[in-house]
Amino acid sequence: MAVERQATRASRSKRTVVKVGETRFGRDPFPVIAGPCAVESEEQINTVAEVVADSGASILRAATYRQGNSPYFFRGLRLEGAKLLAEAGKRVDLPVAMAIMEERELEEAGDLVDLLEIHHGSMQNFELLRVAGRSQKPVMLRRGSSATLDEFLWAVEYLMAEGNDQVILVERGIRTFGAGHRDTLDITAVPQLKEASHLPVLVDPSHASGGAERVPPLALAAQGVGSDGLIVEVHPEPAKAKTEGPRQLNLGEFAELMVQLGISRLRSRIDLVDREIVRLLARRRRLSLEIGRAKAERGWPVQSSRREAELLEAVREEAILNELDPDQMEELFSVVLEESRQAQQEMRWDG
Question: Is the separation of the CB atoms in 98 and 84 below 8 Å?
Fold first, then answer.
């Protein structure tokens, strides 16, 4: 029996937008997720969090549960690290993302984070994917280093089959014949995944870079091919990092990369304000239509010149209090009022 795959582009008429805090992956202009490879101490994660936030990143990210190719690798601070990560995120007002390796880690620390991350080595850990899907939290799924794009999208099905469509795809490098580093960033995967799927696609250039000096050009390449965002690893002193030191940017390098990407904290704040203005205008329109229905039921006219004059006078007074040009604000709200009248009139015609 043929099964309709939920992750494919053909299954949705619109692209999926994944919301984490105030950030909307797949709609907002190039959000960046950043943080150290792993939480190592309270001082370390707080230092990175401040720079990440001040530079304009949207989400703070770090591993707290780790597994490596050797039993002697740093395994993370585990639950204590997750608590430090959550506290650092609150301190700088950013959502936090954390990788989970096993079901018990989700049960233990899942409530502390806003975005779950599935390690590339767990891409085909189907039971973990089912559990993550049932959590109903947004999930970042990293492509396995030997996985085809079709295998990658089949792994996504295990998340979506549990009713969770808040999934972000992450390209982080695949196994090739190159020398000098473990994996090669498959930059062509970005447009291919966006053609094949309706889900947002991010790029993590750090692990495939082979060194911090290659992260910026790969990050810019990701932006150039249409990635929906970026994941970057940052450490106060990469040479002293307990894991992945050579591939992590130092604080100054990260701040410079954000400038190269055209991202800043102030611009991010302006974007949030602009989106809030749009949401408020939409809310005002809905309320206006409710009033319009009440007017229609009573046989009252759409326009009330007296009411509009009172509103515009109040707008002028508020503009002066907030050191804005009252004439400009009156002109702006005159457009808003005209749109409300038109919407109410169209509602009567449709009725």
Answer: no
Q: What are the angstrom distances between the C-alpha of 78 and each of 123, 235, 245, 276?
A: 21, 18, 19, 37
Contacts made by residues 73-76, CB under 8 angstroms, sequence distance 24+: 73/243, 74/38, 74/40, 74/242, 74/243, 76/38, 76/39
**What single-letter DSSP state applies at residue 116?**
E
CB 152 within 8 A of CB 192: no
Burial 142-165 (b: 16+ CB within 10 A, else e): bbbbebebeebbbbbbbbbbbebb
> Average pLDDT for consecutive 10-residue bins of the chain (351 residues)?
84 96 93 97 98 95 86 90 98 96 94 97 96 97 97 98 97 82 89 98 92 95 97 97 92 95 73 82 88 82 84 92 91 90 79 56
d(CA 210, CA 178): 11
Query: Per-residue pLDDT tens for 164-189?
Result: 999 999 999 999 886 555 789 999 99
